[in-house]
Amino acid sequence: MRAGRHQRKATLPGAGYTRPPSLDPTGLIVTVFGESGGVEGTFDFTLLPGSVELRRAFAAALDGKSGPSATWRSGETCRNGYWALRAFLEYLAGLADAPTTAAEINSAMWAAWRLSLPHNNTARNRLALLRTVLPLVPGLAAETAAAIDQRIAQSPRPTEVAYSYEEFEQIRSKAAATFNTALVRIRSNREHLRRWYAGEYTEGSDDWMIGEALDAILRTGDVPRSGSRAHMLDRHARVLGGRAADKTWSRLFLTGPEVFALTVVLVASESWNRSVLHRMRVPDHEPAVADGEFAIHLVEIHKRRRPVRLRYTSNNLIDTGPDSPGRLMRRAIEATELARQSLELLGRPTDRLLVSRRTGTPEDPFCEGIPGQSVITRWSGAAGLSTAHGTPLRVSLRRLRRTAQVLIRKHPAQNTEQTHESIYLLRDPAARAEAQQTIVKGLSDALDHAQAVMKMRVLLGDGAHELIELSDNPDLARAIQRGEMDTATTACADFFDSPFSDEPGQPCTASFLWCLRCENAVITRRHLPRLVYLHRGLNELRGTVDRTVWEQDWREHFQRLDQLLTEHTTTAEQTAAMHAISDTDRTLIDRLLHRRLDS
Q1: 397, burial (CB in 10 Å: exposed 0-12, middle 13-18, buried 19+)
Q2: How far is CA 185 from the centre of its chain?
Q3: Span 418-467, pLDDT tens digits
Q4: Left, alpha or beta for 495 (phi > 0: left; psi -120 to 50: alpha)?
Q5: Higher-scoring residue by pLDDT: 345, 19
Q6: What per-residue confidence (pLDDT) applies to 444?
Q7: Dihedral angle at the C-alpha atoms of 514, 516, 518, 519, nearest 10 degrees?
Q8: Angle at alpha carbon of residue 166, lines to 264 and 316, rounded to 5°
């Protein structure tokens, strides 16, 4: 069971605990421990080419470069570094004067190695990795280290651009259909297994034998098999409808293509990058929020390349309904939960979010994280994706993330405002094409806002409570002071002369959000706590509701309130107002945001 929020998730080691050595006694096997105490990977130099002394020196360099307190902390980076070292060892071993020690590697060998590589990103990345790890090789000559440290030409600026709206929606909808079909399948078989455990089927019946097979799949990751060739039992093949994966283990587990489809949907929704999603853990779950209406999934975001103080952030995904981010996360957890249960029964517990079952009957049947490129290619081909010109549409998680940031969300996701603008917006043709329309719309909105706000009386000065502007109507001023003319957001100088009513003299029936642009509205210092609380609520709502709903129902009110607070209050005043808000005002604004005050 996972620990709750703010609770310690693991017991601390004893006082005499020391971490196991990362380099084995032979000096040829490197174990990389992660920041959480687990093992990120084990890298064996035993069978690589070259002398034992040279291989030990290379292993020592990898050991010094990797680990929880070193530069390389993730398994993926260490694995790439290992393969770069391996490739260099293979090159050195093929030379006529192959070196047997690190001291015998000279700058000419390094230069020849660089010239032998192709001009592509893979070679450039390999050189960059070696440039940082080879100087740690014991015994390497200073002259050689200086040659290795020479600058590497920058890679060409990426030409990758966002998908079009149509392409993005095509990819997202196909992925959603793939994942939804898999989830329905898993739910059905999980219910069958529950009934089998409850003893609802007669022993020996077809339904009972299906339950027996499902139980074996959950415990072992596969159907029961017998014989030297591990054949599936005929009775199970008969009741399950065949021996293929879709008839057997995929009844309980997602396949690789289905996990990739889930990955596509999550990236399209939340704009997470691949490395974050690949390592993502099952989020904590906090129910009973907002009087039990919502549930929140607390997603931990771990970006290992950032400085320590910026490495860990979190997202709150709120489950407000079928199309909400929180509901998507809940369904993702549900679809992969049985795979985590199976791994725990196999003695390999995991809390990774993405878990799939590999095809065939491998010794290690489960894949944690995003599957490899071959699986991605297989799903893309099966989905039948195509461009507007009829050519196959290649799926790239990086392009999906770019599209979500540039065209869908239009604000930073796990990056800074500067990165969002310089890397995503300014370099993308789609963003530049929208810029002109956005500027025109922004100018129009600014004019409308100025005209509306100028009609409203904002009295937030030190003497605002005296209502000097209403001194010609002292009875009205006193009524406003006593709160008798209050609406949910402001005070109203005339309920029966609303610019939003069709007939003069009738009570105003407009939403209280429209008070923010009404000429009858009066805002005093007393109204500030509820307006600041409303601003925070609208800001949170922006990240949970559908984009179309936000644009139609909420955006205008949020922008108007945001401008009002920016022009007439300071950050300190807003903070003080939040601390001063009463339970009555808080409840009133919550009801307004939940549309319980609409007439």
Answers
A1: buried
A2: 25
A3: 554 545 554 555 555 555 566 666 666 665 655 555 455 565 555 444 44
A4: alpha
A5: 345
A6: 66
A7: 170
A8: 40
Measured CA to CA in angstroms, residue 323 lies from 317, 320, 427, 462, 547 at distances of: 12, 8, 31, 46, 11
Per-residue pLDDT tens over the stretch 141-178: 999 999 998 887 766 665 677 788 888 889 989 999 99
Can you name the residues that pair with 312 across neighbouring β-strands? 302
Contact (CB, 8 A) for 302 and 311: yes
Nearest alpha-carbon partner for 434 in 159, 158, 157, 164: 164
The amino acid present at 318, given as its one-letter code, is I
Unique residue bearing structure tokens 């065209």: 407
Give the model's pLDDT for residue 555: 85
- Out of 115-124, 229-238, 284-293, give the one with best mean pLDDT: 115-124
Instruction: Residue 103: count other Cβ atoms within 10 Å of its Cβ.
Output: 16
Structure tokens at 51: 């002398």
* Backbone φ and ψ of 84, nearest 5°: -65, -45
Among 204, 241, 205, 203, smallest CA distance to 223 is for: 241
Please check whether residue 189 is in contact with residue 182, taking contact to mean a CB–CB distance below 8 angstroms.
no
User: Residue for token digits 């936000």?
Assistant: 550
- The token duo for 260 is 């990739």
For 440, residues 6+ apart whose C-beta sits below 8 A from its C-beta are none
Q: How far apart are CA 583 and CA 596, in angstroms?
A: 17
- Give the contacts of 551 (CB within 8 A, at least 6 positions apart): none
Contact, 326 vs 320, CB < 8 A? yes
Contact 585, 537 (CB under 8 A): no
Instruction: Quote the pLDDT of residue 516.
Output: 80
Token pair, residue 572, equals 């300190």
Alpha-carbon gap, residue 416 to 491, rounded angstroms: 39
317: which strand partners? 297
Place of tokens 């455990």: 197
Burial of 54 (0-12, 13-18, 19+ CB in 10 A): buried
- Enumerate the H helices of 118-205 as residue ranges: 121-133, 142-148, 165-197
User: Do residues 447 and 517 make contact, with C-beta atoms less than 8 angstroms apart?
Assistant: no
Quote the pLDDT of residue 385.
85
- Alpha-helix residue ranges (DSSP H) falling in 486-570: 528-542, 547-549, 555-568
Residue-averaged pLDDT of the chain: 80
Q: Let me know: does 299 contact 329? Beta carbons within 8 Å.
A: yes
Residue ranges with strand state E in 471-544: 491-492, 521-524
Q: What is the pLDDT of residue 6?
A: 38
Alpha-carbon distance 341 to 347, whole Å?
A: 10
